[in-house]
Amino acid sequence: MQIHVVKSKIHRVKVTGADLEYIGSITIDEDLMEAANIIEGEKVQIVNNNNGERLETYVIPGPRNSGEITLNGAAARKVAKGDVLIIISYAIMEMEEAKKFKPSLVFPDETTNLLN
């Protein structure tokens, strides 16, 4: 049997931008991506702590050490600059592998989105 488990989480980052005219995705500071073991194009779930919205999209890298968290395309309508998000990715694993797996959890500075 295979199950979905949390692979990565970036906990409590602030939205720095919302670009409705872009074709889609979320732009994430590449330092945060690496720390959370998230790769370009990976599917992620976005949880907005301010309004309760949940959505899925894919990741594109933003400039390193920028703290950038920008929702692009239609997802831009689900956030406002300054909203606090949780970004989660999942993996599908065999049950026994999942029991031993440890996710990459990242807790950046809540005001700058930078790694501590």
UniProtKB/TrEMBL annotation:
The protein's required cofactors: pyruvate
Residue list for modification Pyruvic acid (Ser): 25
Mod. after translation: Is synthesized initially as an inactive proenzyme, which is activated by self-cleavage at a specific serine bond to produce a beta-subunit with a hydroxyl group at its C-terminus and an alpha-subunit with a pyruvoyl group at its N-terminus.
Residues reported to bind substrate: 57, 73-75
Keyword Protein biosynthesis: no
EC number: 4.1.1.11
Location of the protein in the cell: Cytoplasm
Pathway: Cofactor biosynthesis; (R)-pantothenate biosynthesis; beta-alanine from L-aspartate: step 1/1
Catalytic activity: L-aspartate + H(+) = beta-alanine + CO2
GO molecular function: aspartate 1-decarboxylase activity
Lyase as UniProt keyword: yes
PANTHER family membership: ASPARTATE 1-DECARBOXYLASE
Subunit architecture: Heterooctamer of four alpha and four beta subunits.
Name used for this protein in its record: Aspartate 1-decarboxylase
The species this protein was found in: Christiangramia antarctica
Highest classification ranks of the organism: Bacteria, Pseudomonadati, Bacteroidota, Flavobacteriia, Flavobacteriales
